[in-house]
Amino acid sequence: MPSILVIDDEPGIRTTVRDILEDERYSVTVAEDAVVGLELMEKLSPDLVLLDVWLPRMGGVEALEEMKKRRPELEVVVISGHATIDMAVRTLKLGAFDFIEKPLSIDRLLATCRNALALAGLRKENRRLRNVAGEDEEIIGESIAAKSLRELIGQAAASDARVLITGENGSGKELAARLIHRLSRRADRPFIAVNCAAIPDSLIESELFGHERGAFTDAHVRRRGRFETADGGTLFLDEVADLSPAAQSKLLRVLQEMRFERLGGEQSIDVDVRVLAATNKDVRTEIAAGRFREDLYFRLAVVPIRMPSLRERPGDIELLARTFIGKGRSLSAGALEVLSARPWPGNVRELRNALERLRVLCDDEPIGEDAVTRILGAPAAPNSRRVSSIPDRYLDLNLSEAKELFERDYLAWKLEESGYNVSKTAEAIGVYPSGLHARIRKLGIELEK
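and the corresponding structure tokens:
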């Protein structure tokens, strides 16, 4: 039986509304003011609240704000006998489901309650389905690193603090961000992911903050940015260290104020967004090189989380492999041994993709050691820089990751070939020595002597 909490200071309204709703087989609780109503909300967790605007001790608008802070998913219908358009707009912007004027129409009241409860039911079912679908999207492992990571993610999720997630490609940075969102009070709100490295500098401001019609040549209609789309929820800025200096500056200002204007617009837009960010770069190195703002780093890294590479938790490879191979398939002891011995430069993502390939291409049951070697190929030596080893390392990476890894491998191999003579290497590959020095620093290539 759906439960409804009615908060109104008029005894006659409370009695009438309760009788009407109980006739419709709803469970109804009443409160004479918002202070009592908030206590009952915490105690009873109703499915719907009917909230009067003009109340003693605490006004209805203030109560609505507090309700949405405590339970963002709660549906609230605001009622008032002294309604104004501004008040109605304000309550709807704060998250009210609807605004009903007094004297109350019974048909309107019942229709609004039915619609609000239907939406609440859909959200509850979506949450249940997300939880079921997300059962496999966990930090898998029994190593100290995996256990510590799960604990840190749980602690981060309990607050609204910004989180900066660092780690190698494929180590699970977006997975960690999604887990933080799923475990947070914003779980019923949007999770919006933006790959900052994939958006051209000329479009990043429009992508994040939106634009008005006519703001630039192709702006034919008004467009909401990712900050607006994520309002009330979580915005995940992946590869945040790839933002241009101008975009970093604008982002810093928005993080300070949670207010911005669309490109080409003059109206300030307020949003309530939790920002999570990630990068595979060494942020301290980027700051020292002048490529990333230190003040932006401190804004983003309220809670820093570093994702361990698979090399740091080799004991988890067997458990991960058993999980990724899926139901109905198994791996022999020899296959697990071979998988555990491989270097996995692409980390968990590479391992997952490899197990998917084995599942599709191997009919043996269990999947054996020979099948692993045949289908995945012989593993490259951990520090190998031979050109012949390059193709195997890129099969499970996306284009930008493969390009960066290829450049690092190519330059390291060329440097090794020339005896680590930067000038000679630059001449051989057709670049200036100063440019090669910059690439060596950016890619973190060690110049051996």
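(Above: one complete record from the training split.) DSSP finds 20 helices and twelve strands in the chain.
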